[in-house]
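Let's practice the habit of predicting before peeking. Look at the sequence and jot down your guess about where helices and strands might fall. Then scroll down.
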Amino acid sequence: MPGDDPPSSDRRYTAALLIIGNEILSGRTKDANLPFLAETLNGWGIELVEARVVPDIEAEIVAAVNALRARVDYLFTTGGIGPTHDDITAASVARAFDVPLERHGEAVRRLQAHYGDPALLTEARLRMANVPQGGTLIDNPVSAAPGFQIGNVFVMAGVPKIMQAMLLGLEGRLTGGRPLLSRTVGAALPESQLAEDLARLQDRFPDIAIGSYPGFAGGRPSLSIVLRGRDQAPLDRAAEAVAEAMRRLGAEPVFFG
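Done guessing? Here is the structure:
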């Protein structure tokens, strides 16, 4: 559990993800960071409540950073901190905070140690040491070029392997509450048959998030009901109530989790 708060804390901690890059919007690159971030944060008691994708346009990045960081406890960004001309995330975040972009001495030292030969540490690569004034580094154990934190904004690489290493290294810097628990109840039913029951059950269990996910199995309609909450007892009661509704409709429920 990150931070110092006890796991029993009722405080709800929230996060958002800002995915930056034209390659995501064009479909050329498939984002793999959102699922990893959501699952990891949930394990730390932090709920991912929003995700956005914006192009490599400074004004778009600035607007999204300022909108999101005001609404959540933690804002994470991925992409745009490499050595090329279109890697403008650091400069955009600096503008969002209205501070200058500076060459961070420790970031330079890390790059020097990584590349060894001074000839390899080109000006383009040194751009990866640019950090908004007041920012603190996020370690990159994969390729040395760090991310950074300023305020409640955590700027990370877009490459999944690097992003994952950066995120896991933040565990001690983040504070979370109790993780969301989940249970799934499945049955061979079309979604429409259970719709009215689910509406009533959501009113009955307001602290449990109830999601309905239809599909097909063996050529027949199937349905998975995913229930999420922070307390095991009401979660179990809600799952059993869903199962009972399925039984009344002639289906045999199957529990997962």
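How did you do? The first strand starts at residue 13 and ends at 20.
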